[in-house]
Design a protein that fits this description.
This protein is an alpha+beta fold. The chain has helices spanning 6-11, 26-31, 58-78, 162-175, 180-183, 193-199, 201-205, and strands at residues 83-85, 95-99, 106-126, 134-149, 155-161, 190-192. It has a single domain (3-205), classed as Peptide Deformylase, CATH 3.90.45. It is built from 7 helices and 6 strands. The structure holds zinc ion (ZN).
């Protein structure tokens, strides 16, 4: 999926910046469309995104490129990041882009919908590009079924579990204007990354 973007991205040197800068190779800039990620407090993050009606439209294709580039740029600069939703770059359209590190999923999900859940809600620590420095304890289903369109407007059903299931619930929440902070059972389930590393990392990996 979307393999056309790959080659150039992986040869790009890390810029260390969110926006183009003078010390970046200008030929690299032409290949990238990294957008600003909006963060907690920006009202667009609490708005419901609109359904995509015309997947073949140029603006939708450009949006998918922007999401992929912005996600991979974040990953490169921060060492983590698997998914992004269009509202996080201030575009209220129902598109999520996921690149799983194990290669189990790589591409856009257009108009994704959770059509079934299975098993119990389990507590997980969420992080989010839009919540820098924060970890939030939320509850997610371990297994879900998601229907979506791919970039060729083909309908797919994805059975996801574990990390991918958690991620998709998080990203689809973004399309409904819901942040991890809105899902916290208590304000005390919001923890700084610094304290989380000290107190909870062990719990997570056990
Ligand atoms: Zn997020």
């Amino acid at each position: 999926m979307s393999k056309t973007f790959d080659k150039n991205l992986y040869v790009r040197k890390p810029s260390g910046h969110n926006s183009p800068s003078a010390n970046q190779d200008p030929t690299e800039l032409l290949k990238m469309s990294v957008r600003e990620i909006i963060t907690l407090g920006h009202p667009a993050l609490w708005k419901k995104a609109e359904k995509v009606n015309d997947v073949a439209d140029d603006s939708v294709k450009a949006l998918m490129t922007d999401l992929r580039d912005t996600l991979l740029d974040f990953l490169k600069r921060n060492g983590f990041g698997r998914g992004i939703a269009a509202p996080q770059i201030n575009v209220l359209k129902r598109i999520v882009y996921v690149v799983m590190p194990d290669g189990s999923f790589d591409g856009p999900l257009i108009n994704p919908e959770i059509v079934a859940t299975e098993g119990d809600l389990v507590p997980v620590w969420d992080d989010c590009f839009s919540l820098p420095g924060l970890k939030v304890k939320v509850s997610r289903f371990d297994k879900i079924r998601v229907e979506y369109l791919n970039e060729k407007e083909q309908k797919h059903t994805l059975k996801a579990e574990g990390g991918l299931a958690e991620l998709l619930q998080h990203e689809i929440d973004h399309l409904d204007g819901i942040l991890a902070t809105d899902r916290a059972a208590s304000p005390r389930d919001l923890v700084s990354v610094v304290e989380w590393e000290r107190r909870f990392r062990k719990e997570e990996s056990s």
